[in-house]
């Protein structure tokens, strides 16, 4: 009886919000753990947000994204470094990013130039492809948060992409999809912020990629 009551309460909570727009695209094919390809340490670029396919290394940019605040990108950077097992020193990467033009160069060519400038063999390029902040509060939201994050590993020497993981998550009310019960309970039955979804995505990506 208690379980039924709890479930009913959760469903009632979920009914306060409309389902999120299906902004996140389906994840692309995921890479095997990079250690299997001899990649054991990578330099790390700071998170950047892309708004068109020309800025993305490959894949699609979902429409309708908001601009992620600088503080949120910084939080993602902090989460990424905390989640990695062995990040290589990358102090020169931001300096090199500033010296290589964003426009007029293919995305892969640009990141190869940045990695070459920084003197690294492998460069992890994390990008925000979609960002939608929660509208409303933790107990009721008329538009829950959603994010799409891409993680690319560029082999600077071979001028190629050797690893990729896409995390696409848009929170929905429990009433819209009971299969999200585990996630809903893990988030303490609340509608979380986009930065919270981003933290989950960083942790999942590093685990799946073996970094």
TrEMBL record:
Source species, domain of life: Bacteria
Annotated signal peptide: 1-17
Alphabetical UniProt keywords: Lipoprotein, Signal
Protein's UniProt name: Putative lipoprotein
């Amino acid at each position: 009886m208690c379980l039924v009551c709890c479930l009913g309460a959760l469903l009632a909570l979920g009914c306060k919000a409309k389902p999120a727009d299906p902004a996140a695209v389906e994840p692309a094919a995921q890479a095997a753990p990079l250690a299997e390809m001899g990649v054991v340490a990578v330099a790390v670029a700071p998170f950047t947000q892309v708004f068109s396919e020309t800025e993305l290394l490959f894949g699609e940019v979902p429409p309708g994204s908001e601009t992620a605040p600088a503080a949120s990108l910084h939080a993602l950077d902090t989460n990424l470094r905390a989640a990695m097992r062995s990040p290589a020193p990358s102090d020169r990467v931001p300096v090199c990013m500033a010296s290589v033009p964003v426009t007029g160069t293919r995305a892969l060519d640009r990141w190869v130039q940045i990695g070459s400038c920084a003197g690294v063999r492998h460069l992890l390029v994390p990008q925000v492809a979609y960002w939608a902040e929660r509208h409303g509060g933790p107990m009721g939201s008329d538009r829950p948060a959603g994010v799409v994050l891409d993680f690319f590993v560029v082999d600077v020497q071979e001028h190629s992409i050797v690893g990729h993981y896409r995390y696409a998550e848009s929170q929905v009310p429990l009433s819209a999809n009971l299969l999200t019960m585990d996630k809903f309970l893990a988030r303490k039955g609340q509608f979380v912020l986009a930065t919270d979804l981003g933290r989950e995505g960083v942790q999942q990506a590093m685990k799946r990629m073996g970094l």
